[in-house]
Specification:
heterodimer; A: about 400 residues; alpha+beta; 2 domains; two-stranded antiparallel ribbon; 11 helices; about 15% strand; B: about 240 residues; outer membrane lipoprotein receptor (LolB), chain A; about 15% helix; globular
Chain lengths: ~400, ~240
């Protein structure tokens, strides 16, 4: 306890120097928590939105389907097995047929993915109730990004050209029956959604699909011949990787700040030990062991982290809570990376994150405080009392 | 008596016209004789007419069977770009990036350097007679030449265009106009061939205008500067080694 009292008195006595170190350390606390909270918030929201718009509770892919290899698309379709058909009929799954096509908005040529999805399904948030045909028109829904790129509005007609199952060109006109706003670019960028029945008819693939997206209530066998189940681990892999990369990039900033603060603590310790040799000698001659004196100086250094924690809490808690409740607007074009990113990210600060950050900073400060203090153990107390440089 | 003479004359006229009119298959065979060759070398210009400006791209092509190698000569930006087609595969070498990429999927549907031709159009097999049933449906004058109108319907389902319509020069058996249709009947592409020149025993167009009917713009002109048929092509030119 005496060590804490002495440490506190010495730190307060150092005045501005202590304040500056403590302030920089407190900014490190707040930044580490904020940045990690932001990435975790992005991850949570991204996954939530992907479940809602794209991946559901998992997907079955036709065995030839590889989203990274467009060549596979020609063969990536097969009749839906009976269990899949039952699931689509009772609304617990949605079947999607994928084909490549070209649209001609205002006479421009744009390559797209033409996707057929069960009209009226409720597994994904895509407004498929708008795909139910009226009159002789083929209704289609698109996302806001594609609508902007292709300069399309609700009610517009657009020519689409595709190849059927035999590779024969066909063309027809689609009517844009709705434009949805999704934070998941994978369902929006260069994607045109029409009803599954219609696309099956257009491509000559009756009863066939490429993907089956399952909902919460779906009860399906784990293994289905000709289809491969993809869980969230696979479907979120890209988002996880992206956030990991961003998080590593972002950590450089606060790690530099933390390193500066730790360097300042280290320097302060070296200077203290040099200037307070007489004090060290006195402690030892009064009966304190060298280990106790090393402990005293280490505690003094580590106290920077404790004071920084208190200071950080004073301005950090209200600031982080405010940002946490209002969210942070993502820069324009963030979703052009192809990753799910909401317009406003709500940072998520978990207890583990806060405790982990506190422990990390305190341990790091303690280590850099201890390192110069080890010199005390080698000091000759007589020489130290004399103030002779050792 | 007069009536009988008229009837006989009419019948004779119809018979002679029918005899003079070749069948659709004959016309397609004669077209293939003109247009197809074991191998060929072409030096050409492609003039792409955009909404505001036009661009000219010069190239040299060596083709044999279903393989072709093209090297772009001008403009400076495209110079050195090479394209290799081996049956149903297509590679492009770009000197700017020093990379060779294989085109697939979406990329094959993109237009070739902004023209009205897509890469997959270039992949089409030009042999018509083996893929289409042809019927002569009439005659019409195109560019002051008497033409047969030939409607072609695919023999099998696995061809790119189920229906094509050709206007074929009656004397030279070279198409002067072609229309390509989607299965639904939508007109997709239009081609006009002109400046027909004789090369030995065959006729070949010196200028071809391609127009993607779904796209705006004035189409893409293809001007043949130099052409030779049944030429010897070094083996390496039709292999991936030629791309570097």
């Amino acid at each position: 306890m005496i060590a804490f009292k002495l440490a506190y008195r010495n730190l307060v006595g150092a005045g501005l120097r202590t304040f500056l170190i403590v302030f920089v350390l407190s900014v490190s606390y707040v930044l580490i928590i904020f940045m990690n909270g932001l990435y975790r918030g992005w991850e949570r929201e991204g996954k939530f939105e992907m479940i809602r718009w794209e991946v559901g509770q998992g997907q079955y892919w036709q065995e030839n389907y590889d989203p990274y290899d467009p060549v596979t698309l020609t063969d990536a379709h097969a009749p839906l097995p009976a269990s899949f058909e039952r699931a689509t009929e009772n609304g617990s799954a949605a079947a999607i047929l994928v084909t490549q096509a070209t649209v001609y908005p205002e006479g421009r040529m744009l390559g797209i993915m033409l996707k057929g999805i069960s009209a009226g399904q409720e597994v994904l948030a895509i407004p498929t109730d708008l795909l139910i045909p009226k009159d002789n028109e083929i209704p289609a829904v698109i996302g806001t990004r594609f609508a902007q790129n292709a300069n399309l509005a609700e009610g517009d007609h657009i020519l689409v050209r595709w190849r059927d199952v035999n590779g024969t060109f066909d063309a027809t006109e689609l009517t844009i029956s709705g434009i949805f706003n999704s934070s998941v670019p994978a369902v929006d960028n260069s994607q045109v959604w029409i009803s599954l029945d219609r696309l099956q008819q257009m491509t000559g693939m009756p009863g066939e699909a490429t993907i089956l997206v399952i909902g919460e209530d779906a009860v399906l066998p784990a293994e289905v011949a000709g289809w491969e189940f993809q869980g969230h681990d696979v479907l979120f892999a890209e988002l996880d990787q992206m956030i990991k990369t961003k998080s590593i990039g972002g950590s450089v900033f606060y790690l530099i700040l933390l390193a500066l603060a730790l360097l300042a603590v280290f320097d302060t310790q070296v200077l203290s030990i040099f200037r307070r040799q007489r004090e060290i000698g006195t402690y030892i001659s009064m009966g304190m062991t060298r280990r106790q004196v090393v402990g005293l100086f280490t505690v003094e250094g580590a106290m920077h982290a404790v004071l920084a924690l208190l200071l950080g809490a004073i301005y950090g808690i209200p600031l982080l809570l405010y940002v946490g409740s209002k969210g942070l607007g993502m820069p324009e074009g963030t979703d052009s990376f192809g990753m799910a990113a909401a317009q406003r990210i709500m940072p998520y600060y978990s207890l583990a994150l806060v405790i982990g950050t506190v422990v990390l900073v305190i341990i790091a400060t303690t280590i850099v405080s201890y390192m110069p203090s080890r010199k005390i153990a080698k000091m000759n107390p007589t020489e130290a009392i004399r103030g002779k440089i050792q | 008596m007069t009536h009988t003479i008229h009837m006989t004359a009419g019948l004779l006229l119809i018979t002679s016209i029918a005899a003079a009119q070749p069948s659709g298959k004959e016309i397609l065979d004669r077209i293939d004789q003109n247009m197809s060759a074991e191998s060929r070398y072409v030096k050409s210009k492609m003039i792409i007419h955009g909404p505001r400006t036009s661009r000219t791209i010069e190239s040299e092509t060596w083709a044999a069977g279903e393989s072709a190698f093209t090297e772009y000569l001008a403009p400076a930006r495209e110079r050195g770009t090479k394209m290799l087609k081996l049956e149903d595969q297509l590679w492009i070498f770009s000197p700017a990036t020093d990379r060779t990429i294989q085109l697939s999927g979406h990329l094959l549907r993109q237009s070739v350097m902004g023209s009205d031709l897509s890469y997959e159009d270039m992949m089409e097999d030009p042999d018509l007679a083996s893929k289409y049933d042809a019927v002569v449906t009439g005659s019409e004058t195109v560019d002051d030449r008497e033409c047969w109108i030939v409607e072609m319907h695919a023999k099998t389902e696995d061809v790119a265009y189920q229906k094509r319509k050709l206007w074929v020069d009656r004397q030279r058996f070279i198409p002067l106009k072609e229309e390509l249709y989607a299965k639904s009947g939508q007109l997709l592409k239009k081609t006009e061939l002109s400046d027909i020149q004789q090369h030995g025993s065959r006729w070949y167009p010196g200028r071809i205008v391609y127009k993607d009917m779904l796209k705006t713009g004035s189409g893409t002109e293809f001007i043949v500067d130099e052409i030779s048929f049944d030429v010897e092509i070094p083996e390496y030119l039709l292999s991936k080694a030629a791309l570097r």
